[in-house]
């Protein structure tokens, strides 16, 4: 029996339309743990696409810690944090996360979330409620992550806020708007490391603006936590800045290799989020075994092994910067393990991803709306588990494929 009603027809037509525009996304099923080699459909592929920068997602000590956490705490938390879900493991984890930022945020306290998406929604909408309706301005970088954008949209609608989008490489225009802003509460919202370009936010200059114009500065360091700074504490450590206006957000499913996220700020801001952050209040606490596992991950990040893993990443970044030369494709200036190659059109990016797949690599094509139209790209990411040899082989393959793609696209 086939049924057809309006909503179903629209869904089917829209999906067909996405397919026509080469914008339909597909799920691929991995059959092995996250690492630099992945088994997909029975084939082994070399992966340069995960956010497991330090190579911890399948680290033996973390796998053991998860099993041990399960034995100690069971599998479920059973309730939200404010009911009965806040375990000793969560509490210890929050204290440890706060200690990572204590040099950078006075009286720092951390709050653990099940995902970064949720942390961003809770933080932005929660802090927005420090304002009266209509008395809030939000400044959000144009290339911010979708979860920040959604948080800003929701907070903006809720509080009838003025939302200003700014180019993080052009702070003059941001300054001009801030100068004229008479709202009582201002929030500047920024990615620490831009997830699709790999460049860093000018956090020092933004903090100066926040201080000069009495704003809070929300930094989402999803791709910097664990990677940046001598001890992996993130972008605040790297930039060596300190202020109680900084609201720092880190995720724990990327370099930390596990799952979850946290916000770290001056204690009163965190207490406010506990009271008013709806995504925090109305969501079941993450399994305590995850928090227990994360404690081990943080120990690795700030210890000698973390230092070695960051050094390996830096070696890979240097090799890429020195040895990868494209004739037409565009590299982005990035000093992080995110090294995108911009091809522009969806068709050539899909073709390049397909040729890479045939050559045994998994590097998916990133297309709009994740990136701006006309800037489709291969988002190449490094892991500390990649060797210099792995990277040099990828570089050779990319050079070969660039030629093949330009020949094919010319003949189309
Ligand atoms: C991945 C990411 C998030 C979301 O974090 P999850 O824990 O995956 O939900 C938020 N912000 C940025 C910049 C990200 O890259």
UniProtKB/TrEMBL annotation:
SUPFAM superfamilies: PLP-dependent transferases
Every Aminotransferase class I/classII large domain range: 48-397
Cofactors demanded by this protein: pyridoxal 5'-phosphate
Domain of life: Bacteria
Key words, A-Z: Pyridoxal phosphate, Transferase
Gene Ontology MF annotations: 8-amino-7-oxononanoate synthase activity; pyridoxal phosphate binding
Pfam families given in the database record: Aminotran_1_2 (PF00155)
GO biological process, one term: biotin biosynthetic process
This protein's record includes keyword Acetylation: no
Protein name as it appears in the record: 8-amino-7-oxononanoate synthase
Species name: Polynucleobacter campilacus
């Amino acid at each position: 029996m086939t049924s057809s009603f309006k909503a179903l027809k629209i869904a089917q037509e829209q999906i067909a339309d996405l397919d026509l525009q080469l914008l339909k996304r597909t799920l691929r099923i991995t059959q092995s743990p996250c690492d630099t080699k992945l088994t997909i459909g029975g084939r082994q592929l070399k992966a340069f696409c995960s956010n497991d920068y330090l190579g911890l997602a399948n680290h033996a000590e973390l796998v053991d810690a998860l099993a041990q956490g399960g034995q100690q705490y069971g599998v479920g938390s059973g309730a939200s944090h404010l009911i009965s879900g806040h375990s000793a493991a969560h509490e210890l984890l929050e204290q440890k996360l706060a200690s990572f930022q204590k040099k950078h945020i006075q009286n720092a306290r951390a709050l653990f979330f099940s995902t970064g998406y949720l942390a961003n929604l809770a933080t932005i909408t929660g802090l927005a409620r420090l304002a009266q309706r209509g008395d809030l301005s939000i400044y959000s970088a144009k290339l911010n992550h979708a979860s920040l954008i959604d948080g800003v949209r929701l907070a903006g609608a809720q509080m009838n806020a003025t939302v200003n989008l700014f180019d993080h490489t052009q702070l003059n225009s941001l300054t001009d708007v801030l100068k004229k802003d008479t709202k009582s509460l201002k929030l500047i919202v920024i990615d620490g490391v831009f997830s699709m370009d790999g460049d860093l936010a000018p956090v020092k200059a933004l903090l100066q603006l926040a201080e000069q114009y009495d704003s809070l500065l929300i930094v989402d360091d999803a791709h910097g936590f664990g990677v940046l700074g001598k001890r992996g504490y993130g972008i605040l450590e790297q930039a060596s800045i300190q202020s109680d206006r900084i609201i720092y957000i880190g995720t724990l499913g990327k370099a930390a290799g596990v799952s979850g996220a946290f916000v770290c700020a001056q204690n009163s801001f965190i207490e406010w989020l506990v009271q008013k952050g709806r995504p925090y209040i109305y969501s079941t606490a993450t399994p305590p075994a995850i928090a227990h596992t994360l404690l081990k991950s943080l120990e690795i990040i700030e210890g000698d092994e973390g230092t070695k893993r960051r050094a390996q990443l830096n070696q890979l970044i240097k090799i890429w910067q020195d040895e990868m030369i494209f004739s037409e494709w565009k590299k982005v200036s990035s000093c992080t393990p995110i090294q995108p190659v911009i091809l522009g059109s969806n068709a050539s990016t899909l073709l390049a991803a397909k040729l890479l797949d045939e050559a045994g690599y998994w590097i998916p094509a990133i297309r709009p709306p994740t990136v701006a139209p006309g800037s489709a790209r291969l988002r190449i990411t490094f892991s500390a588990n990649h060797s210099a040899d792995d990277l040099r082989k990828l570089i050779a393959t990319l050079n070969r494929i660039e030629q093949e793609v330009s020949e094919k696209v010319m003949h189309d």
